[in-house]
Amino acid sequence: MNPEILTQLVTMKMPFGKYQGYLICNLPESYLVWFKQKGFPAGKLGILLSTMYEIKLNGLEYLLVPLKSMSK
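The line above is the sequence of DUF3820 family protein; the predicted structure tokens follow.
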């Protein structure tokens, strides 16, 4: 896994939609599941959303805690 992707999960905000302005790491799991069913967008955003989906699905959110504290 590219460490830059993990950093972007805690720094990049959702650019559109119901959760516009939320950090990708703070999106609710239900929203990520919806994207999984409908299809993730192309490009960098899609990679970040699908990565966050997998992290939440597998209960790995704790991996982002140190990155969150570093980005403040």
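Note on the example: Residues 3-67 form one domain. The CA atoms of residues 7 and 67 lie 6 Å apart.
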